[in-house]
# Entry
Amino acid sequence: MAANSSMRRTTLDAPANFHPFTTSSSSHPAQTAIDSMPAQLAASLPPATMSSKNGAPVMLRKQSSPMMPPFMVSAPGKAAIAAAISLRSYLHVSFLSKSNRTVQLRFPDIQMEHTWDIDQLPWDSFTQSGKKKYYYDLVTELDPDLMAAIKPFIDEVSPNAPESIRKIHHASAYSFLYLFLSLASRKVPPCVYTLRSTIPIGAGLGSSASISVCISTALLLQIRALSGPHQDQPPQECELNIERINRWAFVGEMCIHGNPSGVDNTVSSGGKAVLFQRRDYDKPPLVAPLHSFPELPLLLVNTRQSRSTATEVAKVANLRKVHPALTESILNAIGLVTESAHKLLTSPDFDATLPATLKHLGELVTINHGLLVSLGVSHPKLERIREIIDHTGIGWTKLTGAGGGGCAITILKPQPPALTNDHSHDELLSDESSEAEADADCGSSVISNGTKLKYKILDSLEVKLEQEGFEKFETTLAGDGVGVLWPAVLHNGNEEEGGEEIDQEKFLKAEGNVGIERLVGVSSYRRRTVKEVREGWKFWRPWEVPER
# Structure
């Protein structure tokens, strides 16, 4: 629960039934051949690996094979216990003719587009003895020689862009090329990788990790180093695939951030939530998965205020120097809140629909925020958001991430307050023009008056927040991790035979978050009483036991 629990000198022990692991020190996955992806192509593709004399896997490649269909990968953001949120990044992979020996990265959300000649890339540097990495390898640090080999190809990206924009483009290009050259080969088919994201960038929600997970997954799928996802997959096999994705996503995060904790990519890869622990600051943090973490409706508001994690950490360090005993007490209290929230959320009796249970969680949210404010890591905009939301009585709000800007999150109450401060039930429910009633899933025969009232309050709240320059998202906490849509075909209600093929042009033309979600979103509707994943999207879910 505590967004800044990593600042504590001591941290909580992991529950006995969880096995802590970290992306930078966990053991290798079993180095054996696994099923190719997708399953429907298995019959037409050769085995992904075979064993050499020394037992290590050796990749096999066909000299010639049919062009792969376009496919998509999607990964969520996070809100740091650390949990996945339903805002997601989407990566569309399309294939070019064999004669077009190029690889292109398109990221329209940050106005980035660049094409590299595949044959001119520094393959020799990445394949020389002692440098070559395989999909099953554990990479805990970047190779300076390989970074130097990539640099000339990064320098040519966005040469005329302002320095602030160019820096972002170069970080994205570094992450992509390092993964591409590590996992692919000279014989890689020409491709276009197109990224779209519904996650606010630079708001502390793990947007870079979500993108790294998408790229890692796509490249591993292309070399057939992943199996599934499918509904009959054993939990251990799901874990193996998630860990493989996570390891390489961590490499992408190192390219962007230098020394990431590994928490963001872990949550984005596996979904649900993780318990973050740092017992020794000279060692990587321990991250324990929380597969039983329940899904909760969440309101997320972006302050649009830039923030610096280093600045906020420095504030706490300075406070600790001036008031060591008081600061330590606050940090210890944050740890107790985290422990209490973990115990509550992972209890088999936890029911998010019970007002008393959710009130308990909400009180912990409120306490946590107050403690973070006392550390000086809030911001006037975050406090204004909390004031506006508290005025409606619709939930419990706290800052997230490092604070100092970024986003605030609100755990929504299962039912709205009996009477809002500004409107009565009748006044709110009489507005027939509201978007909430315009939605098909908000019909009076299906949705209770209480739920319709909550939607009315949320719509009214959105107007108020936008008037003050904030951005509101209705999302879900602790959902699925990385997902795959192979081939890139969805049934979007347009009666197109066999479903609608999502090509690059359609993907690029989708306008804003609403357009992206309508075209390729994992969930069918914006507001539903029952969550529904669109047919076609598949996920690795180790918490589900296959039916026999």
User: Anything to note?
Assistant: The chain is about 35% helix and 15% strand. Residues 292-415+453-537 form a domain with the Alpha-Beta Plaits fold (CATH 3.30.70.890).
